[in-house]
Fold these 2 entries.
Entry 1:
Amino acid sequence: MSKKLTISSIKQAKGVKSLVMITAYDALFSQLVSESADMILVGDSLNMSFAGKSDTISATLDQMIYHTNAVCLGAPNNFVICDMPFGTYINKDRALDNAIKVFQQTKADCVKIEGGQDKADVIAHLTANGIAVCGHIGLLPQSVRSEGGYKVKGKTEEQRASIIADAKAVEKAGAFCMVIEGTKADVAKEVAEAVSIPVIGIGAGADVDGQVLVFSDMLGLFEAFTPKFVKKYLDGATLVKNAVKEYADEVATKAFPAEEHTY
Ligand code: KIV
């Protein structure tokens, strides 16, 4: 079993190895991904792929704490990131109270916060108080309603400059790494070059310091929609449906349980 990464080994990985981040929401899947993942993200995307909601907005801190505990139990030797849900870090005091709750009630190694220059004071306050922070810039899923959808970032010169300023602000505030989501690849590349901490991409091209995918997307389990940036490494939904159909057929015909499944 490989050694658990630390904040400093993650920072040192920049330029040396491409970091592998994947989401998980429970002990079962965190154990399954633990061997190959450098970092496991308990993303608020669980509100969609686990809880069935249409966006991440209604995820709660208690929900995140519950799932983070399960993930940490399944993958005790992995670096675990707990996503701070919408509304839990609207100012630095609220953010610190909520992040302390995450740290006291789970074994998460850090929290993740969406935002750039506008969240620099929050990130600085958390890091000054012993809470490690992973930033999240570019497309911010928690802004989906205020922005009227998921819009790819970095298409204009103004956006490019703003994203690079966001990355610099997040680094200056003390974050040890950041996610960049849904951003033009050339801009994401510039971001990765502009900061000295790892920049982990999702829908941001290959020229960054690592990649993150939502496990249910990359395993082909989430069928509602598939963003362009997702590669399905497994047709999980078809495999599961076929297996359940086979089980149902065998229950109907009484082929299951067979002799070897019977006491
Ligand atoms: O919630 C999540 O899973 C995330 C990833 C999309 C980076 O924030």
Note: The first strand starts at residue 19 and ends at 23.
Entry 2:
Amino acid sequence: MAIELKSLQTKQFPNWCPGCGDFGIWMAIKQAMMQLGIPQEEYVLVSGIGCGSKMPHWVKTFGFHTLHGRPAPVASGVKLANHKLTVIIIGGDGDGYGIGMGHFIHLMRRNYNVLYIIENNQVYGLTTGQTSPTSDQGFCTISTPSGVLEVPVNPMALAISAGATWVGRSFSGDIKQLTDMIVQGVQHNGTAILDILQPCVTFNKKNTYQWYQERVHRLGENEDGHDVHDRVAAFKASQMWGERINIGVYFKEEKPTYEEQLPQLAAGPLVHQSIDNIDINPLLDRLR
Ligand code: SF4
């Protein structure tokens, strides 16, 4: 049965700054859930720490607001316990590409069947505007008043090389495209990475809605001939930043998921398996 919008509404309204790009992501997640036809109680939103990581509080389904940089291992645990659930990880660039970078990479090489949404606003918004791993070189913040020296993390190139089996990018100012990408990411069987260009209207005065609107290019349009199964073409698309930023599906491939390869899950989700005949005393004895 299709989900109605009102059943996804929570009593509280998000407390993001007016105009924050997270509002577009919030809308798109709910629109995607309405389109996907998955029962509401079969979703779990798992988030880290940051402005956008408050998302599970404002979408009425199961959720887990975890620690900074830790949504990927928690989501992996959810999938191992009940791999029939639809798990969406959500967090910011500081959370996923900074403190959570190790978890981000290992999630992709395992290929759990999850969608990981990264709200990439190129700044730490919740802590009032410090440089993040994706801040552009030269960007001035309270933590780098003379401008960023480091080369920014390229999340698309990283995801393509680390083994993600679906890699895409969206812009939170284009809710229709974003909704479609979330639907595709959930429907993909494997780890789907969706980096979302998300303006932080309060602390990032450079990468604004207008700045992105002037640069975003939909892959596959204007006969650019992008082949989503071509890893080299995906790398090439990932190198574009500045005059043109590609949105859409960069890369996808079919591979067995981690859950599909685990013999312990062949009999069904762990939560449904009987533990009556399992004796853990030998294991406990070894630890004594
Ligand atoms: Fe959004 Fe930035 Fe405000 Fe955080 S600080 S709610 S990212 S506009």
Note: The pocket of iron/sulfur cluster is lined by residues 16-17, 20, 22, 51, 121, 125-126, 200-203 (CB under 6 Å).
